[in-house]
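Before a colleague's protein record goes any further, I have to sign it off. Thanks in advance; the entry in question is below:
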Amino acid sequence: MHTILGAGGAVANALTRELSEHNETIRLVSRKPVKMTGKNITWQKADLLNYDEVLAAVQGSSVIYLCAGLVYDIQVWQQQWPVVMQNVINAAKAVKARLIFFDNVYMYGLVNGPMTESTPYKPVSEKGKVRVKIANMLMDEVKAGNLQASILRGADFYGTDSGNSFFDLMLLDKFAKKQSAQWIGDPKVKHNFTYIPDAGKALYLLGQNPQSDNQIWHAPTAAPLTGKEFIEMAANIYHVKPKFMRISKFMLWIFGLFNKNAGGVVEMYYQYDHDYNFNSAKFEKFFNVKPTSYRDGIKHMSETLYNKA
């Protein structure tokens, strides 16, 4: 059985679809009921901060996927992420299940050149320090031989069914409504984005291949483009003019006075005014897969979730 902790989020939903299409038995675990249903899908309530509930939820699992997302607040992250990770590690060990953790790139900090799986951890943000701590918690167990586990990292993502992506909300949704887009940071620097369905497929492939355990992977992600190139490509697909407003760090800080999520992005602004180059060559070569092109991904979004008005 494949158990998804943190069900209901964009990546968890993409993974659920992949597993369901391959007729796998799936247990979705979250604090609140999720919308996804199917003949091989069950849901169980659990709070990842409660070890007994986590342990009960993972009984019978062969593979556990940790896809949880916490409130975008540094104090919440500092207090809760280590507890969540320790609970999940202990539960996976107790039931002798493989564990796959979906992670981000905050621990790398500002990188001059491509981010790879061997990029050293040099966080320049408080959130990045938290990600270092929990990644090390997991991989220390692996190194000690106590657990079969791996980490899959994704870049900033797009293609969400929740709108929880600046690319989706500030670019695709705006163009779908014939409005001017918004772009965080310098539109002349390069950035890349992981397409949510590609992240779901990558988690599925790791779950199917135990030989991929005990290491770090980067989800298939197309090569970076400049913000200007993304805006022009999306405008072309949506048949609108490539109008946009640049969101500066100061503007984010002002927004953050009224919106905690926006405020939480301020310390991450370095990702948007410097080149951001997430490299997934290792995964692509090992599994012989290619990431979805931005044109194909955006076109699909324009026909479905962020439909042309």
